[in-house]
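Local shape tokens

___
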Amino acid sequence: MSTSQSLSLTRPYHAKEYVRGNNRLFLDTAVIDEWTELLSLGIFHGITTNPVLLERAGHECTVSSIHSLATKALALPGCNEFMCQTWGVESDEMYTTGLELSEPDRDRIVVKVPVTYEGTKAASKLIEAGVRVCLTACYSSNQAMVAAGLGAEYIAPYLGRMMDSGKDGVEECKKMQAIVNGMESKTRVLVASIRSANTMADLTSSGMNTFTFNPEIARELFDEDLTSLAAVDFNEAALRCGTDDEIL
């Protein structure tokens, strides 16, 4: 039996996870109504949050509040991961809080930790304790070496904010991916602070496949007038010539 025949017998070629491949798209918001609406698109792998997003959405930044949000998010169809951020100044505080945040579901809750000196110490302990970690607030390609060396599952560069500071954010993100590849690490470069769907599409040409973006960018993916007009034309043609339940 050929390899292709064997594959067809063990898993359908059209299975979503097989067709989707290795990419992961996250919805970056703490607004529950946005989760409910946009996760139904079926394009997202999970949800990312941080204390700033919690504040904007009117949620408390407490362990119990985040546990409640994680439970709601992970109960939604299509939400495979929920990312939340630990806090504190010293590494011990960040570690303790991160450990508590991950308690409800260590398999699907990812704890975000700033890639500072103290944050990296906390992240190291969290990883040793079996917590999934994303190093966040990344502004330099050199920080990808920290994530790869540490064994963090994700590192999140802030693309838009790098551009605001005068850096070439796109180039920094591409260098991060090259560093991770060069170190033969499985750390994912999770590009955040995305201001344009076009920029995100450009980065995919450099092998980047993991992004988190807000609801506005999510809707921008569908903002194409020609596609909308074509859909109207198709529907009107179907109504003119009649439709039938029989599939020919």
User: Anything to note?
Assistant: The mean pLDDT is 93. Residues 34 and 215 are 7 Å apart (CA to CA). The domain at 18-241 is CATH 3.20.20.70 (TIM Barrel).
